Amino acid sequence: MFFSVFRKLLIVYSILLLFPVWAFAQTADGRPCPKLPVVQDVDGNSYHTVQIGKQCWMKENLRTTKYADGQEVALEESKLSFTKGYRYCPNRDVANVENFGYLYNWTAATRGLHSKKNPSKVQGICPNGWHVPSEAEWTQLIDYVQSKSVYWCNDYALAIGKSLADDNEWCVSDDAFCVGNDLTTNDLTGFSAVPAGYYDGKFVSLGYTADFWSSTVNDYGGATYLYLRSYLPYAALNAYDQREGRSVRCVHNEEVEVQKSSDVSASDTLLRAEFQRRSCMGDSVVKDADGNVYPTVQIGRQCWMQENLRVKSYDDGTKIQFSKNKKDVDVAYRYNPMGCDTCVKTYGYLYNWTAVMHGEKSSNENPSGVRGICPKGWHVPSRAEWMELTEYVESQPQYYVQHEKCNADCALSDVKYWKSDCYITHADASVVKTGFNARPAGLFEGYFSDSGSNAYFWSSTSRTQTLSYFFGLGASILGDYHRYYYAGEGFSVRCLRDQ
After folding, report:
1. What whole-number distance in Å separates Cα of residue 73 and Cα of residue 315?
2. How far apart are CA 49 and CA 359, in angstroms?
């Protein structure tokens, strides 16, 4: 008993050393906007919201095809125009829209209306109750973030790019303090800027550049936009050609009250520290045999990969056979999630259990001792280890959400990618995330199904020669996380660090 209490105190003390309480108690930024955790556009797409200072922002890039009155915005692949409103798929690939939203020219974003005011009052392409921010409103965001030292990188007040940038999707940069350097330390504000690139007659800089239109045009006819770069440490404003395609983030018409430090409880402060820390001590990232890099996350005493595995070969050089339609328990196969080539970056591959185990025997030990498909120093989690994860999350009151269906599901799921009608989407705004970021890749069972609604992860534990246990989240699971299924099906994989 004494040592259990001592260990918990030691963990709390370590968190406090890494992230001073006063830094997080100064602000309630990063939370969903009060009474408005989710907003929908006219197409029915759902967007999470985030409060930063007094402003309430969409947390994701706009991906609507229509204005709020139902008028469609023309989809274009090559044309540029001052007078006609166009939208573009990033890199001319519709599969990128889910993660990055559409790119819009300035006319499409604002319907040609210019404003320097704060608020701009230019609804443009935004939903009712929201508007395209003016240059003054982007400046308000920058000034606010720069005024909080907790958002500075290396004590440099201008280096706030990382605090506004998402902790995924960005191309890696070796330049210190830049957005692309150690993505696990990004997104302290919760703004989650993703690098959709831009269109200027050709598609440019996907993975390197995030540009967001304002409603403001300068004296020379250039439209102002906020920009972040993977190789730069700051967020700044620029003005350029209105014809080009850039991302759009909407801001709510009404400002919100800034919560005082006294409104943030001590337990919530500690939780924010745990959430922001995320990466495992000593291993902030891990590489697989193909050189893919995965951020890590500490949850309880376990260190997990924060993304689904997307490796094509084992460490011994053996290739994992790719299949579009074969289902077999005797042959190791990998599959594109949803049958979609470009979806692998977001969802990883699906693997049958044979591919995951790579000839090793079933184990329900903790740790499993089954390296299988995982990198050196990591292993395939056993059913017992998956149970440890869910039991830990459900034992922590900060991860509890008052929802009839959702508990560990919401705390372990990513804030994006789930279908708008999935209960995880509607419940997760009120719960703090563990950082596990489960994504609903669905499964392959002779055909692809359940994408957007369910996430399935193999364990190293078999039930029979053809049935193996998995860990699942989503609409078909409803809290019954630890089930078994045919070992020839294709599921996602998360690796766990050896203890």
Report:
1. 48
2. 46
